[in-house]
Amino acid sequence: MKSYYEMVKDLNKEFTIPKLDDIDSNNSDPLKEFRDLDFLKEIEPISEFEKESVFQQIEEQFDKVPGKSLVRAIGKGGFGKVYPVTHIQTEMKVALKYIEKNTHSDINSIERLCNEINILKKVRHPNIVKLYQTFEDPDNLILCTEYLDLGDLFDYTTQRERLTEKEARRLFRQIIFALSYLHSIRICHRDLKLQNVLIDQNKNAKLIDFGFSKEYSKGEKLNETLGTPAFSSPEIILRKPYFPEKVDVWGCGIILYFLLTGKHPFANFNKEAMYKNILNGKIKPHRSINNRVERLLKGIFNVDQNKRFTLEDIREHEWFGDYEIEDIRGFELGKELIEVNESLVKRVEELGYDYTYTKDSVEMYIHNNESMVYYLLYKKYLERQANDTLNKMKEKRLYTRAAMFEEKKRPERIDTKASLLTAPIQSKSPSNLSDSIQEDRSGLKPCDINKIWTSSQKLSFINRGGKSKFSQFKVKN
Fold it and tell me: Is 59 exposed, middle or buried (0-12, 13-18, 19+ CB in 10 A)?
């Protein structure tokens, strides 16, 4: 059985710093082999090794690192606290998850941790949290992931009491797309719950926490009893062999019900009663659950896993609706990178990294310093592109509204001698009608005035403070 440090080294060979006891005192430069690594290249001789801890090395890349400045943790997972930091070179926010080795020294914790890192290194999908890099210091293993600033789906929903059907469907679709991708490469999550779905600044869902995830074969049944009881399926509660895909489907149903109602479909303060509700699979009616959603949930909450909906059944359901999977620049899901943005690689090179090594790292999906800088710049590029598109849409909308306002046909007053006769004395006539009002009045017979009232020309009556005005209008062409 490998030791903790050996297992961590296997996961982080490129970033493992040698322990002082492992260094040969006869070697004049014991750190020579590590000097090629960018984040270690400034390490001083052995006498200063303790001072040059990974905290200090990380500080070269990140701002506000815990241990050196007071930073509030944005979350606490099963393994450790998560801190928001800023990557100095790209000025992009990332999350650093600190995992204390002494606290998680048992074999189960180690296996779960290694499993999560291995899976995060394999997957890439817009609705799955991205792992950029891993670090290690004598006391902690540090995971650097993308920063998701709107919290988890539980808080996001409860802050609004419940979500609208439109928004719930959008987030539910994203979760289904992420699971479909995972199942296509034979990985099941097995711990789907509201707290394991985070929301980014664009209000998109991202799956996290792959500690209980597992790779499986087609048609294989699993036996491990794990996960969160309130989100567990009947076969998990009964400790029976289960299809991993159907366990994930059950968890999706609970998430959907909560998004629409703000309540858990089976929750009860009494655990025995909650288990009974799960085994029955019957949900409580709610005003936010219409007939189409109810039919979908009945298919998802079928207690017989063989008859339970598959992800394909969910995608084809009437409520799920028509959809188009968004094009993700540079990626083909589950496969190699289609193209590397050459201009971004050059930008990474300008920051002091090797061009060829950066390009190879991105193409081979290696989690190192070069690829992290590339992906952060790539994310920054996409955000800027999205903002530019949004601004153009706003400008176009404002321009269109202004144009419509200018081009809108308005009634234009046409003053004639006849109309002046019915206007109050204080009215001003146009310059081209400078005739005397008195002359016009005196020269017109009473019957002619009656003709004005009964003519086919349109007259508009406006009653203001008891005074009547008659004005002749026509629409401007």
Answer: middle
Residues 142 and 8: their CA atoms lie apart, in Å, by 11
Instruction: Check if the beta carbon of residue 214 is closer than 8 Å to that of residue 244.
Output: yes
Contacts for 115 with CB less than 8 Å, ≥ 6 apart: 210, 211, 213, 214
Residues 6+ apart with CB under 8 A from 101: 4, 8, 139, 140, 141
- Catalytic residue at 63? no
Q: Write down the architecture of domain 153-315 according to CATH.
A: Orthogonal Bundle (1.10)
Instruction: State which fold the 4-146 domain adopts.
Output: Phosphorylase Kinase; domain 1 (3.30.200)
Please report, in range form, the residues annotated as the binding site for ATP. Answer: 97
* Structure-block tokens of residue 315: 């995608």
- Provide the residue ranges of all domains of the chain, joining segments of one domain with +: 4-146, 153-315, 342-407, 411-475
The backbone torsions φ and ψ at residue 432, rounded to the nearest 5 degrees and listed phi first, read -80, -5
> Is the whole model's pTM more than 0.90, yes or no?
no
Q: Binding site: residue ranges?
A: 97
CB neighbourhood size of 257 (10 A) = 24
Residue 117 and residue 317 in contact, taking contact as beta carbons nearer than 8 Å: no
Neighbours of 295 (CB within 10 A): 13
Q: What is the DSSP string of 164-186?
A: -HHHHHHHHHHHHHHHHHHHHTT
The domains spanning 4-146 and 153-315 adopt the same CATH topology: no
Rounded to whole angstroms, the Cα distance separating 34 from 17 reads: 8
Q: Which of 36, 63, 155, 191 is catalytic?
A: 191
228 alpha-carbon distance from chain centroid: 24
pLDDT values of the chain reduced to their tens digit, one per residue, 477 residues: 444 334 434 443 333 333 333 334 444 433 333 333 333 333 233 223 333 344 555 666 776 565 544 444 555 555 678 888 888 888 899 998 888 888 776 777 888 888 899 999 999 899 999 999 988 877 888 899 999 988 999 999 999 999 999 999 999 999 999 999 999 999 999 999 999 999 998 899 999 999 899 999 999 999 998 889 999 999 999 999 999 999 999 999 999 999 999 999 998 888 999 999 999 999 988 999 999 999 999 999 999 999 999 999 999 999 998 655 544 333 444 444 457 889 999 999 999 999 999 999 998 888 999 999 999 999 888 888 878 887 777 777 766 665 665 555 555 555 555 554 444 444 444 444 444 444 444 454 554 444 444 444 444 444 444 444 444 434 444
